[in-house]
Amino acid sequence: MADQPFNAAFGQAQQQMQKAAEEFGRMFQAVPSMPDMGGAMASYQRNLDALAQANRIAIEGVQAVMRRQAEVVQQTMAELAETVKTLSGAGIAKIDPAKNAEAIKDAYAKAVAHSKELADLMQRANTEATEVLHKRVSAALDEAKALAGSK
């Protein structure tokens, strides 16, 4: 008889535990199934790879622009030194205003052409980098859609 209160309490505790387990199970039935984690991680890795590739392209573009700028500066300095040498040897009396105007016009045209060339280099690099990212975003959205549909 001494065991009856214990058995009754134990029975109640067992029923409460069973009820809690059932509620716990119902709670997880409402949670959607987990996506394919391997697929999600592979997709994430492809995202990182595309970002790294786009960064490499952008850096290579900046390096190309910097190299070309250095070449332009070197060329401009050589031309400037030649112009100074020519003008200093000619003397004030022999300076031809028409020739000077033509030289200034040529220098301006070269500067504009060099600026356009540098801008084109940067635009090409940016376009390539953006295209890499665009393709990856499109593929990532397709992958997400497939992962969502595979549940």
Quickly count the domains. Answer: 1
In angstroms, what is the radius of gyration? 37 Å
Number of helices: 3
Helix content: over 70%
Number of strands: 0
Distance between the termini: 55 Å
Overall geometric form: rod-shaped
What does this structure look like?
The structure is a single chain. This protein is mostly helical and 151 residues long. The protein has one domain. It is 89% helix and 0% strand. The protein has 3 helices and no strands. Helix 2 runs antiparallel to helix 3. It is rod-shaped, with a radius of gyration of 37 Å. The model has no long low-confidence stretch (mean pLDDT 81).
Reconstruct the topology from this structure.
Elements: H1 3-29, H2 37-90, H3 97-149
Helix pairs in contact: 2-3
Short description:
The chain is mainly alpha-helical and 151 residues long. The chain has helices spanning 3-29, 37-90, 97-149.
List its salient traits.
single chain; mainly alpha; 151 residues; rod-shaped; 3 helices; 89% helix
